[in-house]
Amino acid sequence: MATPQPRARNVADLKVSILNPSLTSTYETSFVFPGAVAGWMNRQSGVGNGIDFDTLNRVQIACREATLPGSSLATHTLDNDFTGVTERHAYRRQYDTTSSFSFYVDINYDSILLFENWIRFIVNEDASNSDLNNRNYTYRVNFPNEYKSDIFIRKFEKDYAGKDLEYKFLNAYPVSINSMPLSYDASQVLLCTVNFNFSRYIVNTVRTDKFRT
Fold first, then answer.
1. Which of 44, 86, 94, 200 has the CA that lies 20 to 30 A from 70?
2. Distance separating alpha carbons of residues 116 and 112, to the nearest angstrom
3. What is the largest CA-CA distance in the chain?
4. Is the pTM of this model over 0.90?
5. Given 3-state DSSP classes, what are the helix, strand and coil percentages for the chain, each rounded to the nearest 5?
6. pLDDT digits (tens, 9 = 90+) for 49-74
7. How far is CA 165 from CA 5, 99, 184, in A?
8. What is the C-alpha separation between 167 and 68, in angstroms, rounded?
C-alpha cells in the first residue's frame, strides 16, 4: 500500500470539508406508541386525556435534547500467534443500552403524562382500579411485545437539502423518568427527561421529502 503524500489544498476544498459543518440543533424525534399502550390510555386507564395525533406531535416537537446512540466492538485478545505481538479480533457488536430524551413540559403536562402512562401500562397501573390506593397493592407486568416499540431520531440540516440520517431504535420502551426539581428560585422551563431501553439501532439515509413537506 502506497504511503499517503501531503498535497496542496485550495479554499474550495476547505469550504467543502470543514466550513459546512452539521449542526446539533437540527433534528426531529418520533415516538411510535404501541397500539396496546395507546388503546389503554384512550380507555381512561391512564392519567390525563389519552393520546391523539396532535398531542403526540406537540410532544415530539417539544423534544429539547436527544442523544444519538453509540456502539462498540467487543474484542478477543490473541497473544500466541506471533512472537511479541498482541492481536485483538472483533467478535461482537455491543450497543448502548439506554438513550435519553429531554422534553419541554407545557401547561397540560403532556410530556410527563404520555411517558408516565407508558410506564404505568408496563406495570398494569390502571387508573380506574380503586386498589391502587391500597397499601398492599400488587401488580403484574405486561408482556414485552405489548409495550415495546420503535423510536426514531432524524438528523437533517437547516437547508433541508440532500440526505438525512435516520436512527431507528428497535424494541424501545421507557425505563425511567428523571426527577424534576421544583424551586421558588428564579423560574425556569420545566424539563422531563425520559430514558429508553432498546435492543439495537439501525442507521439509514433518508431523503427529506420522504417525511417532511
1. 86
2. 6
3. 76
4. no
5. 25, 35, 45
6. 788 888 889 999 999 999 988 999 99
7. 32, 17, 41
8. 8
